[in-house]
Write a structure and sequence with these properties.
With 211 residues, this protein is of the alpha/beta class. The protein has one domain (7-208): Aldolase class I (TIM Barrel), CATH 3.20.20. It is 27% helix and 24% strand. The chain is built from 7 helices and 9 strands, in the order H-E-E-E-H-E-H-E-E-H-E-H-E-H-E-H. Helix 3 links the parallel strand 4 (81-85) and strand 5 (107-112). Helix 2 packs parallel to helix 3 (95-103).
């Protein structure tokens, strides 16, 4: 399956393969509970088996949209925070999008696996590293928040390896994989109590029944 869109169709990032954009409440991590406008881009080459956004993986399903259109919709609502997510948004040049959003006085939060080079300017970077396609070194350095999805006990070892590479001010989160949440949550609770540098992130939007 193709995972990228030809660069000439993107016009240097002035167009991006938009899956959806919508105003909601951030459900995970440090900013959980915060109203935010989500911009979800298509395309991912990581391919996690438990991904809850597999519909985003093939960007060819989503023709490139002019970023000015997206910015107009974002600024038409009351949101003061923007979440750029995917898919894997760093597959694309994000400079034009983030510049336009910042010019409107908006905060920009990035959700990424960190597996591709950075572009654009962000106020907050949530790094969610995946073992099958590991982050680039620059992603660890840029992360404000490390959010590791835990499906099994082995993932805790991966979480600690990642935590050893981020900056000392980076916030650390363990998040149960949704389908394994009931099984894995007791382990995460006890682990966080024994290692209090870690916090637990819950997908609160799923309990609120919102996107």
């Amino acid at each position: 399956m193709e995972r990228t869109v030809e660069s000439d169709l993107l016009d240097g990032g002035r167009k991006l393969p938009l899956v959806e954009d919508f105003y909601t409440i951030q459900g995970e991590g440090f900013h959980a509970g915060k109203p935010a406008y989500f911009i979800r881009l298509g395309g991912c080459d990581v391919g996690c088996s438990w991904c809850d956004a597999k519909y985003t993986w093939n960007p060819r399903l989503y023709p490139p949209v002019d970023v000015r259109t997206v910015v107009e919709r974002a600024t038409a609502c009351a949101a003061r925070a923007i979440v750029i997510t995917g898919g894997e948004p760093l597959l694309y040049p994000l400079g034009p999008l983030t510049e336009a959003l910042h010019a409107c006085g908006l905060e920009i939060f990035l959700e990424t696996s960190g597996s591709h080079p950075f572009s654009g300017r962000f106020d907050w970077v949530c790094l969610s590293p995946k073992r099958r396609q590991q982050p680039l070194e620059e992603a660890y350095a840029r992360a404000h928040e490390l959010k590791v999805i835990v499906e099994c006990e082995e993932d805790l070892q991966w979480a600690e390896r990642c935590a050893a590479r981020v900056g000392r001010r980076c916030l650390l989160y363990l998040q149960p994989e949704w389908s394994a949440s009931d099984r894995i949550m007791p382990l995460l609770v006890e682990y966080a109590k024994a290692h209090p540098q870690w916090n637990i992130s819950i997908q609160t939007h799923k309990y609120m029944h919102i996107p």
